[in-house]
Structure formats: structure tokens, C-alpha cells
Automatic annotation (TrEMBL):
<keyword id="KW-0547">Nucleotide-binding</keyword>
<keyword id="KW-0067">ATP-binding</keyword>
<keyword id="KW-0436">Ligase</keyword>
<comment type="similarity">
    <text>Belongs to the formate--tetrahydrofolate ligase family.</text>
</comment>
<comment type="pathway">
    <text>One-carbon metabolism; tetrahydrofolate interconversion.</text>
</comment>
<feature type="binding site">
    <location>
        <begin position="73"/>
        <end position="80"/>
    </location>
    <ligand>
        <name>ATP</name>
    </ligand>
</feature>
<dbReference type="GO" id="GO:0005524">
    <property type="term" value="F:ATP binding"/>
</dbReference>
<dbReference type="GO" id="GO:0035999">
    <property type="term" value="P:tetrahydrofolate interconversion"/>
</dbReference>
<protein>
    <recommendedName>
        <fullName>Formate--tetrahydrofolate ligase</fullName>
        <ecNumber>6.3.4.3</ecNumber>
    </recommendedName>
</protein>
<dbReference type="InterPro" id="IPR000559">
    <property type="entry name" value="Formate_THF_ligase"/>
</dbReference>
<dbReference type="Pfam" id="PF01268">
    <property type="entry name" value="FTHFS"/>
</dbReference>
<dbReference type="GO" id="GO:0004329">
    <property type="term" value="F:formate-tetrahydrofolate ligase activity"/>
</dbReference>
<dbReference type="InterPro" id="IPR027417">
    <property type="entry name" value="P-loop_NTPase"/>
</dbReference>
<keyword id="KW-0554">One-carbon metabolism</keyword>
Length: 586
């Protein structure tokens, strides 16, 4: 160790590290877990959350470290790589550290972004299991979610075919569902743009109810959001029963409880409530729970994973999706509010290539070579783009946290470029550390680890951006101005009508505000880089996740079903027929 990341692909490094990968019995002894708290799944295991949290309930929590980023290029700037590298660096210092990260979606894995396992010598293993379903949580979510749609369509068919007396004989009451006001759609864990809008039920009266429907990617399901914020199995069951599937012809919500499907959905989800335990390539523990897609949902590893990690580790590093305007904002104002946990420090991952893009550099296109502006020293572009980093530093400081900027190093970065980023970060009131974890693993992350440990000793004056009593439209305005840098918010008539209704209905009191926005810009427009000025955030709709207790203002053209590009990753993924090993994952 470390492995030669300049010559080996990620899946090859994973294969080498997995030869000595810790077993479930090893983790039971190392982490002091008791019999029955470890649930083996082949080479990996799940942890019985309720047993562990009950046994350790009186143990003080460890330090709580969140990892976020600047506004990324479409390639991503390495938050998971930084998370893995930081845990490895803390391990090299002899500290009891672990991580909590999200499970990757099959959509990005088979498309452009890759598996989200990290990279190089800052990688989560076993990589193949991690990338291809792990212990089945996303599959459980798909089954549970689609069962609700099966129940809905079947109920609509039966109500069309039978009168009230016949329905009563079958133990059913008429829900009178409005086929033009269906909240949910189907889900599949791929980027399948051809399924964004569909017509279902084509055929005769026994072939379902014919209506317009849709597919979203699995990780956009409200069930994934619920998994991220649920506190225990009882809470999970109650939240699932409140999911709004559709509305009746009077405008009243029709829930999974009304369809009598919530219990069966929970049965599919019963094992998903327990986090999966993996490791870094340097064999530090990594909990995996909940999923990505912070555009529409919370995009965080779960509250459950963080709660047990803070009991088992002296330093728990948890990752938030996308940049600080999305991931950190939701960590700050939603996850921490729901969990009651207070972070000690936030790490802002930055790359020099992304800062150059924000300074006016050429367009970065996945699958194409980077323009030379990103691989040669260009201090002028870099200096112009540093405003984006400074903006995110200011956002984190508004929460009362002193951030640490991690310069995620690339071999093309120069000393002068690194010095410039460090100087401006420190001027903005943040610690700054260069980290070479991709190349050198934990040894390359020692400066980062030391800066984070030092920051954990700072006093934290943690405060939310807004009180829960603040009306929805005022919250959106506060987020737009204080986090995104907008000059204001505009609402379509339909969106404003919904917002007014939610504000006046006591049933939605205490719901979180879950902004839906592109991750590629501080604005709603992914083409606007840097720190745009004098712009207005348009809100076109508000989605309701009643089980998760989220109100989701929709901005821009965010889709719940991403599309697959012309050069997807699945073209390079295969299986060695002699060994059965998967090749080509990244």
C-alpha cells in the first residue's frame, strides 16, 4: 500500500484490496459488537441498528464531520473520494474513525458518473457488491414503491368495473380516485428517458385502468427519502402509511393506508432499515445506507447510520450529496433538525479544475478529454473561479460551523495554483488542506486529517437558517437569497396556489423544505457558472412527500428520470468468464 493508482483502474485496486478484506467476524471483534448485532451477507454484513443503539445509548457521541463540495463539473469533484481519504488519514493517525455514505444508484453506475465508491487509494470495497445492488436496499425500495402503484391501478380498475355493493362484498370502499391527479409513478433503477411519460392499461377492462403514468429513477422515490430520515422501524411504518399516492375527485389525498398496502410495503423494507458495513481499501469501517439524488430528496446517508456511527467511532465522517448549496443546506436545515445531531465541522471539497471552469473555462463534457486549460497552469481562470469556493465557505459559516477546505489534488495542479486556493480560502475564514488521498491513500490525507481534528476542537454555534414556523414561501426566499445568492423568487400561479394551501393547512405544519434544483450551478440554470448576480429563482411546482414530511419546491427543469448518454459506462463493463469477476467498474 498504496496501490499504483496511475496504472491500475479502480476495480483492479478493489480486487487487490479485497484479498485481505475484513470479514463480518473481524468487524464484530474490532468494533466490539455483540452476537446478533452483525447480520452476514456473504463477504459483507448489515448491522442490527436497534440492538446497537439500545446497547450504546448512554455512550457519548464521537465527533460529527460532514463532507460537501463546491459547485461541481459534470465529472464530480470527489466527495466520496475525500470521505474515504479522510477516514484513511484519521486511521493513519491512530484514531477510531469511520464513515457513513450513500448507496449508489444503478442509473449513474451504468451511465456516466460511475459507482460513487470513491477512487484510487480512497475507495470503498467490495466495489462490485457496492456497485451492483449491495444488500438489496434499493431493490426493496423498488418493490415496495411499485407495489403501491400496483395497488392503485388495480383499485381504479375494480372501482370502474364494479358498483358500490359489489365493492363492499369484496371488502372495498370506493375511493373515487381522480385519474388526472396521480401523485406517484413507477420506478426503475436506471436512467431510462423513454419511460418518463407512459400510457398504461392499454387493452380490455381486465388489463388495468388505462391512464397516463410515468417512471422515475428508484433513488428519487419517497421511500428512499423516508429511509434517510426514519428513526426506527415503528417510525418507518408510520411514514410509509402517510405517502400520498393520488387524489380523489374532491381533491382529498389517497394514501397507501387508504389502499391498504402500507403494511406490505413495510414488509419489503424491513431489512433495508439496517445499514450495510463495508470498508475502505485501508480497512477502515464504512457504513452504507440510503441513497443519492439530492436534486429531489435529501441526498444524505441516513440518520440511522450516523446515529450508530457516532456511538461506534470517535470520528464519524458523513457525506452530503452535491455542493454546499444543495447537500450541505439540506444537511443543515433538514437532516440535523430531524436528527437533533450537531456537526463539529464541514469539509468543502474543491478541485482546481472546477474552479477554473467557474472562472470561465471551456465546457467540461463527460467522456471527452479535458481542454488544456484544465491540465496546464492558468492562474487567471483560477482566480476568477475562486468566488464560487468563497460563496460556499460563507454558506457553511452561516450555520455557525468553521469549515475546512480540502483541495482534492490532481497531478496536473501546480504549486502556484494550490497556493492561490489556500490563500483565498484562509482569507475567507476557512482552514485549508491539500490532500493526495487518490494517489497515496491515508498517507496523502494526513494534512487534511490534522486540519479536521483541529477544527473539531472549535466551538460550534450551530443555528438553522430559518425556524419551522416560517411560512413556506418565506423559507424558499431565505434559501434563495442566503444560500444561492438570488435577488428573489418568482412563483408560477399554480405553484403559488399550492404554497398558499400548504401554508394554511395545519396538516403540513413542521414539514421540511426540500429544494429541487440543479447541482451544476448556484442557480436553477446549469449553464450559469461561478457566482451569478441579480437573478431570480423561478419555482414552477411544489411536490409533496407526506411520509417523509417534505414539501419540495421545483425549480428549473429537474427530471425525476435522468437520461442515458451516448457513451455510457455499461459499454465497458463485462465479466471474466473464467473467474466470474466483474471488470470495468469505475
Amino acid at each position: 500500500m498504496p496501490y499504483d493508482a496511475t496504472k491500475l483502474k479502480d476495480y483492479q485496486i478493489a480486487e487487490l484490496a479485497e484479498k485481505n478484506m475484513p470479514t463480518p467476524s473481524y468487524w464484530q471483534e474490532k468494533l466490539g459488537l455483540e452476537q446478533g448485532e452483525v447480520i452476514p451477507y456473504g463477504r459483507i454484513c448489515k448491522l442490527d441498528f436497534m440492538k446497537i443503539i439500545d446497547r450504546l445509548k448512554n455512550k457519548p457521541d464521537g465527533k460529527y464531520i460532514e463532507v460537501t463540495a463546491i459547485t461541481p463539473t459534470p465529472l464530480g469533484e470527489g466527495k466520496t473520494t475525500t470521505t474515504m481519504g479522510l477516514v484513511e488519514g484519521l486511521g493513519k493517525r491512530g484514531l477510531n474513525a469511520g464513515a457513513a455514505i450513500r448507496q449508489p444508484s444503478g442509473g449513474p453506475t451504468m451511465n456516466i458518473k460511475g459507482t460513487a465508491a470513491g477512487g484510487g487509494n480512497a475507495l470503498a470495497i467490495p466495489m462490485t457488491e457496492f456497485s451492483l445492488g449491495l444488500t438489496g436496499d434499493i431493490n426493496d425500495i423498488m418493490n415496495a414503491h411499485n407495489l403501491a402503484m400496483v395497488a392503485l391501478n388495480a383499485r381504479m380498475q375494480h372501482e370502474r368495473n364494479y358498483d358500490d355493493a359489489e365493492l363492499a362484498k369484496r371488502g372495498l370502499r370506493r375511493l373515487d380516485i381522480n385519474p388526472t391527479n396521480i401523485e406517484m409513478g413507477w420506478i426503475i433503477d436506471f436512467c431510462a428517458q423513454g419511460l418518463r411519460k407512459i400510457i398504461m392499461g392499454i387493452g380490455g377492462k381486465m388489463d388495468g385502468y388505462m391512464m397516463e403514468s410515468k417512471f422515475g429513477i428508484a433513488v428519487s422515490s419517497e421511500l428512499m427519502a423516508i429511509l434517510a430520515v426514519a428513526t426506527d422501524l415503528k417510525d418507518l411504518r408510520e411514514r410509509i402509511g402517510k405517502i400520498i399516492v393520488a387524489y380523489d375527485k374532491k381533491g382529498n389525498p389517497v394514501t397507501t393506508s387508504d389502499l391498504e398496502v402500507a403494511g406490505a410495503m413495510t414488509a419489503f423494507m424491513r431489512n433495508a432499515i439496517n445499514p450495510t458495513l463495508m470498508s475502505t481499501v485501508e480497512y477502515q469501517p464504512v457504513l452504507v445506507h440510503a441513497g443519492p439524488f439530492a436534486n429531489i430528496a435529501i441526498g444524505q446517508s441516513s440518520i440511522i447510520a450516523d446515529r450508530i456511527a457516532l456511538k461506534m467511532f470517535d470520528y464519524n465522517v458523513t457525506e452530503s450529496g452535491f455542493a454546499a448549496d444543495i447537500g450541505f443546506e439540506k444537511f443543515w436545515n433538514v437532516k440535523c433538525r430531524f436528527s437533533g445531531l450537531t456537526p463539529n465541522v464541514s469539509v468543502i471539497t474543491a478541485t482546481i479544475r472546477a474552479l477554473k471552469m467557474h472562472g470561465g473555462g471551456p465546457k467540461v463534457v463527460p467522456g471527452r478529454p479535458l481542454p488544456e486549460e484544465y491540465t496546464r497552469e492558468n492562474l487567471e481562470l483560477l482566480e476568477k473561479g475562486i468566488a464560487n469556493l468563497q460563496h460556499h465557505i460563507a454558506t457553511v459559516k452561516k450555520a455557525g460551523i468553521n469549515p475546512v477546505v480540502c483541495i482534492n489534488a490532481f497531478y496536473t495542479d501546480t504549486k502556484e495554483e494550490i497556493a492561490m486556493v489556500r490563500r483565498y480560502a484562509e482569507q475567507a475564514g476557512a482552514r485549508c488542506a491539500l490532500s493526495e488521498h487518490w494517489l497515496k491513500g491515508g498517507e496523502g490525507a494526513l494534512e487534511l486529517a490534522d486540519a479536521v481534528v483541529d477544527a473539531c476542537n472549535d466551538k460550534v454555534d450551530f443555528k438553522f437558517l430559518y425556524p419551522l414556523e416560517m411560512p413556506l414561501r418565506q423559507r424558499v426566499d431565505a434559501i434563495a437569497r442566503e444560500v444561492y445568492g438570488a435577488a428573489g423568487v418568482s412563483w408560477t400561479p399554480e405553484a403559488e396556489e399550492k404554497a398558499k394551501r400548504f401554508e394554511s393547512d395545519p396538516a403540513f405544519a413542521g414539514f421540511a423544505t426540500m429544494m429541487v434544483k440543479t447541482h451544476l450551478s448556484l442557480t436553477h440554470d446549469p449553464t450559469l457558472k461561478g457566482v451569478p448576480k441579480d437573478w431570480i429563482l423561478p419555482v414552477r411546482d411544489v411536490l409533496v412527500f407526506a411520509g417523509a414530511k417534505f414539501l419540495c419546491p421545483m425549480t428549473g427543469a429537474i427530471s425525476l428520470m435522468p437520461g442515458t448518454g451516448s457513451d455510457p459506462a455499461f459499454r465497458r463493463i463485462d465479466v471474466d468468464v473464467n473467474t466470474g469477476k466483474v471488470m470495468g467498474l469505475f
